[in-house]
Amino acid sequence: MAEILPIKAWRYHEQYTQRIEELTSPLFDVVSAKQREALYANPLNSIHLSVPKGDEPALHAQRLLEEWKQQQVIVQDQIPGIYVYYQYFKFPGQDVESCRKGFIAQIKAYDWDENMVLRHENTIAKAVNDRTSLLHATQFQSSPTHGLYEDPLYQLEPYMDAAIANPIYDLEDYQGVREVLGVIHDVPTIRKFLEVIGEKQIILADGHHRYEGAIAYRKAMSEANPEHTGEEGYNYHMMYFTNALSKNLRILPTHRIFSGIGLSEEQILEKSASWFVVKKLHDVEEISELILQKQWAFGLVFAKNAYKIRLIPEKIKEMAVEIPEVLKTVDLMVLHYFFIDKVLGIPMQEQRFSENIDYERNLHRCLGAVEEGKADCAVITKDISMNQVLDVCKSGYTMPQKSTYFYPKTLSGLLFASVEESEFSFPYQVFRP
Question: Which PANTHER family match (predicted)?
């Protein structure tokens, strides 16, 4: 079902191998402003390609990319490969180390209605536009999105375990996660990967904006090419694939921060009482524990006060009839429908575009934004289960934007993928089963 190909990857020149830790960068939305500035201070860090700065960031990335190619800061592997990517980490409170096993390859940028790649959350329009503009300017991908496939037999693990035994890179990242990258060039083995994934649907775990940008780019390029075949480089997109049935997949919560709402604390509480049971808390640190085991429960934080709010159970019947049952079980859907829409007055259809909503994974940064007066209030959420993600994806519906945060995040800069035709082209038929 889903067609993948090996990658003719671009990587930092081997002279930089010992410095690879300082050249890689986390995804932009998971680091603080101070961490970002430290990354930008290094002129060779991959963040300059993944999230370029300046008045014309896409043009800046294009110029820098050409400069890096000419100076051989980055060089291209001439033989396509499947890049095996393992992440070793510990969950909070656990002594046993976990390992998330996966591999990086190219996948066709299937449109959503083709039902090959399934999404589970909405996107923010501006972020998609930024990703599309960057692709048009550079024809280059600096970080993979994250896709899930379901394989109860774990058919690919023996091949990945063998490849990771002789890694290209072995480093510790900003999260304290050990990141290990290996490569498979063996043609029969690569065919096995294409064969296994060719029978699967892919569930997009992370990178909805980058993937949607790839769809928009493919459409624009194919419409402009009268000789379009579907085999051109612009049809493909770099993705990190992991088995959804692995025990080492963890989804962390993403909290909501609100500013410029135009409502006082008293007004928000008064309106909330029509939909939620509201309980004042004595200690904001109690929030996570109090909402953990409760359906439709959230923490509501103001500068001086904090509350637990939980949807009045009978109110779930007032959710629009067109919303399916599978979404009514998702806490974040309840939050966006009843609190953000009904209480704060930001309609569901406008929330993707709203500048009044921000998203923060770090609880302390979230609370700090409110305490320091940078935001009016914040809503503390809890994680959702992998089963919920799979159920929503397969239903054809989507959850609100920023619903999931798969931990750990992938790194930018371990390898890059070009979709520029002269750099992408290869007789890929030798790999096809």
Answer: DUF1015 DOMAIN-CONTAINING PROTEIN, LMO2823 PROTEIN
